[in-house]
Amino acid sequence: MNIIDLSLPGIRGRLDLEGHLIEAEERLRELNARAGGAIGAPLAVPQLAQVGRLARRLGIPVSRNVIAADGEDDVELLVRAEPDEDGVTLNVSDWRPRSAWRAGEIGPEPAPDVHRFVGHWMWETDAALCITFLSLDAGVRYGFDGNAMFGQPLTRLFALEEDAQGSFPILSAVAMQTRFEGQRAVLRGTGRAVKLSASPRFDAEGRFAGFLGAVEMPAAEPMPPRIDPEIADFGGFPDSFSQRLDRALRLPLGRIVANADSISARTDGPLQADYAEYAADIASAGRHLLALIDDLVDLQAIDGEDFRIASEPIDLADVVRRATGLLTVRAAEADVMIDQPQGDAWLPVAGEYRRALQVMVNLIGNAIRYSPRGGTVWVRLERENGLVHVIVADQGRGIALEDQERIFEKFSRLHPGEQSGSGLGLYIARRLARAMGGDVLVDSAPGMGARFIFSLPVRE
Questions:
Q1: Is the Cβ–Cβ distance between 112 and 178 less than 8 Å?
Q2: Does the N-terminal or the C-terminal CB of the chain have fewer CB atoms within 10 Å?
Q3: Cβ-count burial of 300 within 10 angstroms (0-12 exposed, 13-18 middle, 19+ buried)?
Q4: In sequence order, which residues have a C-beta less than 8 Å from that of residue 420 and are 6 or more positions away?
Q5: Of 66, 98, 130, the domain-final residue
Q6: List of residues 6+ apart from 171 with CB closer than 8 A
Q7: Contact assessment for residue 363 and residue 392, using Cβ atoms and an 8 Å cutoff
Q8: Count of domains in the chain?
Q9: Quick one: angle between helices 353-370 and 316-326, nearest 10?
């Protein structure tokens, strides 16, 4: 491995608009060559290429710590990518040689930034405190549009609150360019209380380059371990089992999915078709596991004796619009059209926004999954007898009358060998709807598609 003195200044490189390395100082040029690249060709170090693409897409400078292969070993780098109208300038600094992981080896001691791995989800900002990264699916899980947050100020996502001494830890950290913990905030649009922590990042010249941080959701903390006979389906695991599973697997699975998607899309250069297909299969399997983790965490929560739903004023029509927006890409990939109500309908109901959104994402997602290619999913709104109804109809194979209650049972699968989903989605959706004073019902017949009706009480 090419061992480089940490005291050396940053190494400069230049990418054009297509991601080709058109300029590079010696050490960066040599690292790229060892990865199989050359000047004028796509940057061959995937981790550096990914930072360059992110900066170009967001239109803002982005800094990242990355680990790249360098021969048989690895090198840890700080990469700063600054986009302009002609491409991206890279500044690669803080080169730290490290041994690559090999089977049977015990990994290094955890880095000081342990908050990177114990938060419920992660975020990063640039020096202006604009968001450059959010954990995969954080928006879907916690009820906000994650894609719309990129490039926005951190305060667009979080409403900051004073601590007991009347100060804001994050502001002190910006002024002193130090780590902070325990910054109280509210997740905008959901009312969820959160706590933020982060460590600063610096560029090659020692300038403050932003924060890498974590979000702790205090209300979602696991309960003390106990054996609950009501969750015998888990074989006697304690209540905290699924939450521990969530923390242990979500971050690495998210990275696996993101990298597999990048490989499948051939974003770092040409790749044999069969390898790209393998990567797509890996990404699909990773998403399935992430969805299963979500369902297990929710299942243990809603089956607990102390489970409560917040009752707050929400607009169910807005929930429908948000859920449809979150599923637009999935529908396009399945070649399914979503026909939703037009205009700015307003349907005031009593419930919990995040949970209502979860129910709608489940129902519309199921309709997309079971619709034929070229099919349509209809979403309609009705108000009747003190209830607001959202009707989701598909053109799938339908559900026989004798199976229409069974689909709401835990781990229910109507068709042997069915691989999609966890068999928990409809069970969770109905439990959540009923906890909010409403319900989820189905109306269907074989060969006639299915209509799912999500109802909540009107808020006067």
A1: no
A2: C
A3: buried
A4: 288, 369
A5: 98
A6: none
A7: yes
A8: 4
A9: 50
pLDDT digits (tens, 9 = 90+) for 154-163: 888 998 888 7
88 by DSSP, 3-state: which?
A: strand
Of 337, 341, 319, 316, nearest to 328 by C-alpha is 337
Strand partners, 210: 201
210 and 235 housed in the same domain: no
* Axis-axis angle for helices 273-302, 425-435 (nearest 10): 40
Record the tokens describing residue 100, joined without a space: 């690559």
Contacts for 267 with CB less than 8 Å, ≥ 6 apart: 19, 49, 50, 53
Phi, psi of 116 (to 5 degrees): -65, -20
Assess whether pLDDT exceeds 80 at residue 63: no
User: CA 436, CA 338: separation in Å to the nearest integer?
Assistant: 26
> What does the pLDDT look like over 222-234, one tens digit per residue?
333 333 333 334 4
Q: Is 334 part of a structural domain of the chain?
A: yes
Q: How far is CA 399 from the centre of its chain?
A: 32
The number of angstroms, rounded, from the C-alpha of 417 to the middle of its chain's C-alpha atoms is: 28
Please report where in the chains the tokens 């250069």 appear, as a residue: 269
Q: Are residues 58 and 38 in the same domain?
A: yes
Q: What is the CATH number of the domain that holds 437?
A: 3.30.565.10
Predicted confidence (pLDDT) per residue in 377-423, tens digit: 999 998 888 899 999 999 988 888 888 888 888 766 665 545 455 67
CB contact burial 437-460 (16+ within 10 A = b; e otherwise): ebebbbebeeeebbbbbbbbeebe
CATH number where 16 lies: 3.30.450
Contacts with 428 (C-beta within 8 Å, 6 or more apart), sequence order: 295, 298, 299, 302, 358, 362
Q: Which two tokens stand for residue 141?
A: 């899980």
- For residue 354, give the nearest of 154, 144, 134, 147 by alpha carbon: 144
Residue 196 lies in domain: 115-220
